[in-house]
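Kindly draft a polypeptide, keeping tokens residue-aligned:

***
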Amino acid sequence: LAKAGGGPLRVGVVGIGVGTLAAYGRAGDYYRLYDIDPLVIDVAKSHFSFLAQTPAQTDIVLGDARLQLETEPPQQFDVLIVDAFSGDSVPIHLLTREAFAQYFRHLKPNGVLAVHITNRFLDLQPVVKTAADYFGKDIRLVDFEGDRERLVFRSRWALISSDPAFFKHPQLANATTMTERPDFQLWKDDYSSIFSIL
């Protein structure tokens, strides 16, 4: 995490998976992890060691992340990671204007929203770009090609922040801007189009 130079971090994670992201936690950090599926949480705890071995303090919140965020007081996250879109079924309600409003409500003013947009079938770039533009935030794209020998798969992340200094960090030297799609309509709770991103 490029923001890790300034002391302990408060980190929110939407989508636990096997708990890999908790491995980035350091002593003094706090990770609040949201997942809708109790089976996923059970597998992450019983079959993988990332959650058990992280030096960060962790809390796991069971339930739909957006609904949970809507009911919680502002969490003041330094970083909020949304990692729920790499499967075949994309939870659209986590990609609307109203969802992004909740993400930014829970971030500190200079916090970073990191959205994992790797997907074999859908191009989520215009979705996150229009949302960032709507809220007046800067956005950059970070691509990692992966490493076959180490069985590390390629990934694509959108980083969104109001903090211009964040994007000047040396670790983000290869981050790129996103191509504009002026015709793309902001997704809202009452409008979205999967066909527009196939």
